[in-house]
C-alpha cells in the first residue's frame, strides 16, 4: 500500500511552512519519513543541503500527531529527559523548560506526575517537549487538534514568535484557515500526491480569480443558478461566490438587490479552501474544514 | 552511545524510584531469612508453638507419664495429669490447654491412645508423644515376654552408616541428612530468587515496551534516539536496577552470616558461600539478559498488556520447568536429562546453578553452558532489536506470527 508518492518540497530557514491536506492524505506519513521514524522506499530527505542524518535530528523539534508522555513520571523530569536525548545540555534546557512552563501557565505542575494533567495541559506539555531544546527546525503534526479556540490562537502566536527568532516552522493541518493565517509556503496534498505547492502569495495570484464574500440574511440558494456565477462555497456565516472570468462583481451586487439583505459584500482573493475545492473537486473537499 | 546513557538513566530511575521495588529490595532478605533460618530455629525448639500452655494427660501408667514429662520438659512444655476427660476436652477447646493425651485402660494392647487438640496440626509435638509411647509400649512388651532387655538393645542397635561428598581437591566432606537438607534449602532459595527476579524484570521490560506503544511516547522517542538505543536502554536500565537489588541482597546475606548469625548463635547453611553467591549473580545476569531481550521483542509484538501476558506463556514455561523438577535436580544432578537442561539456554541458568550447588559439574559443561547462554543472549538481542524496530510502531492490531517473522527479515 502506498501512502504517499512523488512528493517534493522544501522549507527555507526562518519560514512557516504548511503541509495541508484532508484526513488520510499522507501528512503524518510524510512527516514520519522526514523524522526518520519510518524509511521511504525511494527518495531522499536533505537537511541544509546534505542527506538527513541522526545528528540533524537533534536540531529538529517534533510534535507527533499521536500525543503521549510517560504518565507515571513527573512533568519536569519527562521534559528534561526528552531534551537530554536531543543532545541538549542541562544548562540550556533547564531555563528553557522553566520559561516555557511559565509561558503556558504550567509551572506549578512541574513536580506533578504527567497523568494528573488535563488533556489541554498535556497538549501544551507536549508542545514544550518539542521546543525545549531550542531546535532550529520544528515540526508540528496537527498542532491544533484538541485545543480550544483560545489555546489555538496562543499556539499560532507562539509559532510566529518561533519564526521571528529564526526557526523554521513546519506544521501539518487539515484546517485551511490556520494555514492561511500564518503560512508563507504551503504544500497541499491529497491521497498522497501533490495538489499545489508554492508560496501563499504565488498560489493566490495563480488561482486568484473573481471572488466575492457575502454575508446576508435570507435564502441565497438562487445565487448558484445565476449564469455569470462559476461556483458557490458555503461557510457557516457567509458564502464565497466565484464569478466567471469576465463577470464584473458589480453585476452580482445588482442581482442581489431586493432579494437578500446584504450585510457584507467584499471582493477577495479566493481562500485556500476555495482553491483546494476547485483543484480536487467538491467530494474530496468534504473532508476539509474551512 | 551517548543517547543510550540517558535512556538507561531514565529507565533506571523510573524502576528504582518505584515503591514496589524499594519494598522488595528491603524485604527480600527478610523473606530469605524466613525461608532459610526460621525453619531451623523452629526445629530447635518446637516449644515455641506451645506458647506456655500445658499438655493434659489422662490414664497413663506412672512410667509412661515420667517418660512423657522428661521429653516434653525438654521442649519447655509442662505435662499435667487430669482425672476428668470431659473437662480436659473443654479446656482444650477454650484454649487453656495445648492438647490432651488420653490413654484408655488396657493400653497398649487392649486400649487406644488418643491426642485431642484444637487444630491437629502440631505434628512435632504429637510425633514426639507417639515416639515416647511406642518406646514405652515396646519396653513393656519385652518385659512381659521375659526377654533380656540388654539383648534386645543389642539386636536393635543400628549399624554405622555415613555419607561422604567427594570433592575434586581430594577433600572429603561428611554429609549427614541435615547437610543435604541445608543444600536443598539453599538450592530452593537461589532457584526461587532467580525465577522471581527474572520473571519480574522480564515482565517489567515487556510492560515498559507495551506502555511505550499504548502511551504513544514511541514516536517522540524515535524522533530522538534509534530504536535499538531505546530497547537496550530499557534492558540495561532495568538490569542495573536488578543488579542493585542483588547487591543489596548479597551484602545482607554476608552481614547476616558474619555478624547477625553468630550473635543469635545461628549459622547460615554452609552452601551460602561466597563462591555460590557469585554463581548466583552470574546466572542471574545471563538469565536476565536472555529473558529481557525476549520480553522486549514480545512487548513490541503485542497490542496491549493483556496480549503480552498471553504471548509470554511459552517463555514462562521454560522458567517453570526447572522449578517443577527441583526434586530431580537435587537428587540426580548428573543424570542425562538434568545435564541437557543445564546446557539448554532457556533452562540452563536455573538448572546449572542448582547443579553447582549440589554437585561439581565438569568444567567443560560449565564453560559450554555459559558459552551457549552468551550466544543465545546475543542472538535473542539481535532478533529482538529487529522485531522491536518494526513492532514498536505497529498499533491497533495484533500481528500474526508470520508477520513478526517477516519483520525479522526486513533489512
| Poorly predicted spans of chain A | none
> Which structural class best describes the helix and strand composition of chain A?
alpha/beta
Question: How many structural units, i.e. domains of chain A?
Answer: 2
Q: Into which percent range does the helicity of residues of chain A fall?
A: 25-40%
What is the rounded Rg of chain A?
A: 22 Å
What percent strand of chain A? Answer: 15-25%
Number of distinct helices of chain B: 17
What's the oligomerization state?
A: heterodimer
Explain what this protein looks like in three dimensions.
The complex is a heterodimer of chains A (290) and B (411). Chain A has 290 residues and is an alpha/beta fold. Chain A is elongated. The model of chain A has no long low-confidence stretch (mean pLDDT 83). Helices cover 35% and strands 22% of the residues of chain A. In chain A, a hairpin with a 4-residue loop joins strand 10 (229-234) and strand 11 (239-243). Chain A has two domains: 16-199, Rossmann fold (3-Layer(aba) Sandwich), CATH 3.40.50; 209-268, Alpha-Beta Plaits (2-Layer Sandwich). Chain A has helices spanning 27-34, 54-57, 75-84, 90-103, 119-131, 149-164, 176-182, 200-207, 249-256, 272-280, 282-285; strands at 16-20, 46-47, 50-51, 60-63, 137-141, 168-173, 185-190, 193-199, 211-217, 229-234, 239-243, 261-268. Chain A contains eleven helices and twelve strands. Chain B has two domains: 2-41 and 177-409, no CATH class; 46-156, D-Maltodextrin-Binding Protein, domain 2 (3-Layer(aba) Sandwich), CATH 3.40.190. Chain B has 17 helices and six strands. In chain B, strand 5 and strand 6 (172-174) form a beta hairpin. In chain B, helix 16 packs across helix 17.
Amino acid at each position: 500500500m502506498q501512502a504517499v508518492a512523488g512528493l517534493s518540497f522544501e522549507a527555507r530557514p526562518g519560514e512557516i511552512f504548511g503541509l495541508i491536506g484532508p484526513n488520510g492524505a499522507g501528512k503524518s506519513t510524510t512527516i514520519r519519513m522526514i523524522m526518520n521514524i519510518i524509511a521511504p522506499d525511494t527518495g531522499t530527505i536533505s537537511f541544509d543541503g546534505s542527506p538527513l542524518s541522526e545528528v540533524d535530528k537533534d536540531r529538529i523539534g517534533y510534535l507527533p500527531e499521536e500525543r503521549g508522555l510517560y504518565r507515571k513520571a513527573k512533568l519536569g523530569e519527562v521534559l528534561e529527559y526528552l531534551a537530554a536525548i536531543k543532545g541538549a545540555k542541562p544548562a540550556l534546557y533547564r531555563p528553557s523548560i522553566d520559561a516555557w512552563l511559565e509561558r503556558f501557565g504550567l509551572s506549578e505542575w512541574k513536580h506533578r506526575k504527567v497523568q494528573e494533567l488535563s488533556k489541554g495541559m498535556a497538549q501544551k506539555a507536549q508542545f514544550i517537549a518539542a521546543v525545549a531544546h531550542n531546535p532550529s527546525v520544528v515540526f508540528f503534526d496537527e498542532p491544533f487538534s484538541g485545543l480550544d479556540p483560545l489555546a489555538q490562537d496562543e499556539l499560532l502566536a507562539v509559532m510566529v514568535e518561533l519564526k521571528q527568532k529564526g526557526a523554521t516552522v513546519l506544521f501539518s493541518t487539515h484546517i485551511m484557515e490556520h494555514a492561511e493565517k500564518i503560512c508563507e509556503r504551503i504544500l497541499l496534498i491529497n491521497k498522497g500526491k501533490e495538489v499545489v505547492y508554492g508560496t501563499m502569495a504565488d498560489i493566490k495570484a495563480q488561482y486568484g480569480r473573481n471572488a466575492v464574500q457575502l454575508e446576508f440574511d435570507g435564502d441565497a440558494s438562487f445565487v448558484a443558478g445565476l449564469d455569470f456565477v462559476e461556483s458557490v462555497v458555503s461557510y457557516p456565516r457567509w458564502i464565497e461566490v466565484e464569478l466567471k472570468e469576465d463577470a464584473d462583481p458589480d453585476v452580482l451586487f445588482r442581482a442581489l438587490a431586493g432579494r437578500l439583505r446584504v450585510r457584507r459584500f467584499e471582493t477577495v482573493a479566493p481562500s485556500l479552501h476555495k482553491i483546494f475545492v476547485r483543484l480536487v473537486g467538491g467530494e474530496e473537499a468534504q473532508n476539509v474544514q474551512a | 552511545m551517548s543517547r543510550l546513557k540517558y535512556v538507561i538513566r531514565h529507565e533506571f530511575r523510573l524502576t528504582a524510584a518505584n515503591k514496589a521495588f524499594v519494598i522488595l529490595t528491603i524485604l527480600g532478605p527478610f523473606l530469605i531469612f524466613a525461608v532459610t533460618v526460621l525453619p531451623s530455629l523452629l526445629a530447635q525448639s518446637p516449644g515455641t508453638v506451645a506458647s506456655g500452655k500445658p499438655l493434659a494427660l489422662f490414664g497413663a501408667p506412672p512410667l509412661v507419664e515420667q517418660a512423657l514429662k522428661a521429653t516434653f520438659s525438654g521442649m519447655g512444655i509442662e505435662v499435667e495429669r487430669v482425672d476428668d476427660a470431659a473437662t480436659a476436652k473443654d479446656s482444650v477447646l477454650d484454649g487453656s490447654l495445648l492438647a490432651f493425651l488420653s490413654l484408655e485402660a488396657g493400653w497398649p494392647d487392649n486400649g487406644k491412645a488418643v491426642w485431642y487438640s484444637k487444630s491437629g496440626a502440631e505434628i512435632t509435638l504429637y510425633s514426639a508423644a507417639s515416639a515416647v509411647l511406642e518406646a514405652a509400649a515396646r519396653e513393656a512388651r519385652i518385659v512381659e515376654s521375659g526377654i533380656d532387655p540388654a539383648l534386645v538393645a543389642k539386636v536393635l542397635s543400628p549399624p554405622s552408616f555415613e555419607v561422604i561428598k567427594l570433592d575434586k581437591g581430594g577433600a572429603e566432606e561428611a554429609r549427614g541428612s541435615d547437610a543435604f537438607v541445608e543444600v536443598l534449602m539453599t538450592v530452593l532459595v537461589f532457584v526461587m530468587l532467580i525465577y522471581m527476579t527474572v520473571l519480574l524484570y522480564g515482565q517489567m521490560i515487556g510492560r515498559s515496551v507495551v506502555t511505550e506503544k499504548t502511551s504513544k511516547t514511541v514516536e517522540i522517542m524515535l524522533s530522538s534516539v534509534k530504536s535499538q538505543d531505546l530497547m537496550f536502554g530499557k534492558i540495561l536500565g532495568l538490569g542495573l536496577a536488578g543488579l542493585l537489588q542483588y547487591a543489596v541482597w548479597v551484602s545482607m546475606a554476608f552481614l547476616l552470616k558474619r555478624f547477625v548469625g553468630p550473635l543469635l548463635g545461628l549459622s547460615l547453611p554452609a552452601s551460602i558461600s561466597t563462591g555460590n553467591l557469585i554463581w548466583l549473580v552470574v546466572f542471574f545476569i545471563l538469565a536476565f539478559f536472555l529473558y529481557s531481550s525476549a520480553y522486549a521483542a514480545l512487548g513490541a509484538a503485542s497490542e496491549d498488556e493483556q496480549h503480552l501476558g498471553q504471548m509470554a506463556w511459552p517463555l514462562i514455561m521454560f522458567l517453570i520447568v526447572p522449578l517443577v523438577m527441583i526434586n530431580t535436580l537435587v537428587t540426580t544432578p548428573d543424570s542425562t536429562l538434568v545435564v541437557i537442561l543445564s546446557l539448554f539456554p532457556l533452562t540452563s541458568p536455573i538448572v546449572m546453578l542448582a547443579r553447582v550447588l549440589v554437585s561439581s559439574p565438569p568444567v567443560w559443561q560449565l564453560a559450554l553452558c555459559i558459552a551457549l547462554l552468551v550466544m543465545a543472549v546475543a542472538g535473542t538481542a539481535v532478533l529482538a532489536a529487529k522485531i522491536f524496530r518494526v513492532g514498536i510502531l505497529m498499533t491497533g492490531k495484533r500481528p500474526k506470527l508470520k508477520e513478526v517473522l517477516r519483520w525479522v527479515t526486513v533489512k
